[in-house]
Amino acid sequence: MSVVRLVIEYDGTQYVGWQIQPNGLAVQQVVEDALARICGVRHRLVSSGRTDAGVHARGMVAHFVTDKLLPMRAYRDGVNRHLPADIAVRDAALACDDFHARYSARSKWYRYSIYRAAVRSPMACRFSWQVRGRLDVQAMREAAELFVGRHDFSAFRASGCAARTTVRELFSVDLVEEDPLLQVDVRGEGFLRNMVRIMVGTLVEVGLGSRSPCEIEDMLSAGGRDRAGVTAPPQGLCLMAVDYAGQDVFPGQKCLDMSETFR
């Protein structure tokens, strides 16, 4: 038996998320269908995590186990011939026998894109959240720094989150200005459902002046969802990369970098 690792990029706009579910078409289902056409049998993909409806990925990692190994180009180029334009296998590689897309992961990198402009952009609307008011980026940076470290993120998870523990460690929360975009890069060992989106919604409220940076500490201590800010819309969020033993997949790649388009 062989373990094959895939790195998958997708525009999540038209999908109910990564994971197969009964209420609509999922990215996982589309990729498994295309893989079956190449392999002749159906393989179940095990992913590094899941993304919600409308969320994108630049580096979703998934693996499957097979007893009939094909050339790696078949799992990339061959599968891509059967995928729609909004999904692509970026890389396929033979992994070690004990590799697991989820359990072998050391950390994940998410990027949230905020479009700062008074007039909407048809080009940006699929991949960013338009915020019309002026944002105090320095205040947002002060607030973002308080998320770094190991905390109980109960206040920053969706009501339907089934995680056994709400304690997570974040390694960094960086704000990068690429006018008119403001990118919020979050790296951590793992995330609760909607955690990054609620963090970003809270940071935007800080940037608009309706909250102070120091309130983040109170939210983390109190733990109630009603203490944190709004949930930012899904289209601004992208899974950039998953880290395995110190190596990003893909390393050095940018996700949906549209900054040049709007200059």
TrEMBL record:
Domain of life: Bacteria
Molecular function (Gene Ontology), one example: tRNA pseudouridine(38-40) synthase activity
Entry keyword annotation includes tRNA processing: yes
HAMAP family noted in UniProt: TruA (MF_00171)
Its job: Formation of pseudouridine at positions 38, 39 and 40 in the anticodon stem and loop of transfer RNAs.
Membership in a protein family: Belongs to the tRNA pseudouridine synthase TruA family.
Protein name: tRNA pseudouridine synthase A
Naturally occurring in which organism (per UniProt): Syntrophotalea acetylenica (Pelobacter acetylenicus)
